[in-house]
Amino acid sequence: MKRVTLQGPVDISGFRREARALVGAGVPPDQVRWSTDSAPADLFGDPEADDDSVVPAAPEGVRDLFDAVVPAVSSGAAATDQRSARFSVPASFLNLCTSVLLHSEPQRFDLMYRLLWRLRSSPDSWQDRLDPERRRADQMAREVRRAIHKMHAFVRFFPVADADGERYLAWFEPDHFVEEAAAPFFARRFANMRWAILTPRCSLSWDGQAIHTGPAGRREDVPPMDAGAELWLTYYRSIFNPARLKVSMMEKEMPRRYWANLPEAALIEPLIAQAQGRTEDMLASGATVPRKIRPMKRPGPATPDR
Amino acid sequence: MDINQKLAILADAAKYDASCASSGTDKRDSSRGKGIGSTEGMGICHSYAPDGRCISLLKILLTNHCQYDCLYCVNRASSNVPRARFRVEEVVSLTLDFYRRNYIEGLFLSSGIVKSPDFTMEQVVEVARVLREEHDFRGYIHLKTIPDASEDLLQRAGRYADRLSINVELPTEQGLQQLAPEKNGVAIQRSMGRLKIHIDDAKEARKAASAAPIRVIPGAASRPARPPRFAPAGQSTQMIVGADGSDDRSILRSSANLYNRFRMRRVYYSAFSPIPDASQALPLKSPPLVREHRLYQADWLMRFYGFGHEEIVDDGTGLLRLDVDPKLAWALAHPERFPVDLNMAPRELLLRVPGLGVESVGKLLQARRLRRIRADDLRQMKLPIRKLLPFVVADGHRPRSEVGDHLLARPGASLLDAAASASPAIPPVQMGLF
After folding, report:
1. Cα torsion for A180, A185, A187, A189, to the nearest 10°?
2. Where do the structural domains in chain A lie, given as residue ranges?
3. What is the ipTM of this complex?
């Protein structure tokens, strides 16, 4: 049994390096145990079953890992030997890999190594998107992409004055390990603002030049409410149409676990509670006497000055 | 009046516009700019209200004073609702502040008609100009266009906005005359036509410019600037459902017409909803939300599933069925087209099978190149099996009896029970709390 320990939960390049070495050495998936240094892989495993042979890191030269190119058509034994030395995977595999490996599921490394192993033995089966393992990976990738999208949507910045002017701070608790993957979006959008997003796992900050990843943040470091956020609450209250209440739809797209960090979420319960009364009032109150109006002067078709 | 009160009135006045889309525009960011903002193709919903609607843009009116008296509208001239008016700089700073806090993707600005259509449009365009030119704002801007505004103003609006829209409001000219006497259906269509020409021209010109080879000749004039953009996210429109007597057939006919003639990105359907201080001339009742939902489903069938508008609505009534979705309704009315063999049928036919979406059809086609489709695959794909199985043949599955026998019976019998019970049984009753 080989044991591979990756550096942290999002060590994608470490996985690629180790996986390449393992495939090259012909180690089948059931002979590898993956873990990250933050979370031991098998808490209840039998320690004697491991021979503790940690796979050595590959030499610097192969850091580029699998190359994302379509494998060249090869035949004959010589070509097969060559393939174990230079093993390339389709770009779609790499794409899937970079998403799936950010999932919080501890088995994600095993799953991707199994898929990689199969990709090598039967490249065609990769095209079968109904295959159970492929579907599992697709599903996990979808969940990770959704978590990134929701982070882009639900981060709420608060301006804080400091020595250099204004800095925007946010506290956020994402699903999965998507912090680093979601950050470049904020750098592109708020390139000329100084901002920081603090999360329980790490903090990301932008100084106008680069994104810096730091240690875990604390909720207390972000101010809770200010006048600007009050305006946002006014907007949220006013844009809601009580005659069309559809709570399930809202909860599907904005799950409750995100509510703690959304200032407007505090309004949801009272708005729902009042909705029916407000609608009934509109239906019951009936029409009022129309306001008097002056008929409007419409520009005629032949007005000369236009 | 302070900004908070104005925002409350002018957001409330804007909420009957269904659109809040921020997608489909060109890709840009602020990494090489002085200002702020980005758009990346896919829109983002930054929040959801308890009505289940996406909040993507700051959707407000510049003013809800209005000289038009459209009966369905909360802001009509004769309504007694409180009125307010934003100054240009107030909208600009509100937009930028919300944007910096990551509340929104941009601005959706509309306005009541004050003084004249041109005066109003001028103000609306000015907000967009200040955002773009003075603050280098690169987020999303949707401007509601006033159909009677001058050509020059339309041009300028298109230069600053990602999307322009003109609401047709009612599906028929007759309905418009009845309920919105100041609006003119012909003028609305004329303006849509002009917008389409500008959008197409700008797209064409930019394509031609970027296709031209880059030539660097010492001393020669530099490459000409790229032609200006014009509403890269196209135009959209909205129809009110349930305020006049139009049936679903005529609604879908008008929207098919709008999609074909003006290449609308979207036609929105807005169930007429009770409004504060409603007009005496309109029936006060709860909004027909299920009908609105069925119209969106039918719209989807026209745009992504290859259905023609004339085949969606059942001939007799002119209305969509409320108890089953329009695709299932079509399948039940056309037993001669089923069952469909998942291992043989072309894409167009697969798309007509109830329970199969565009994505699952894509997966089936891809898998089919390698191996045969089994009934078990459908279960694994988590498709709505009870809805799907009566209409398909796959390895290990064939509908129990001839589909035709079941279906030629009156609707509501046998197969319908199986298929319809798979879709949530929504009795056509509207609005309950939870």
Report:
1. -160
2. 2-147, 155-221, 227-284
3. 0.88
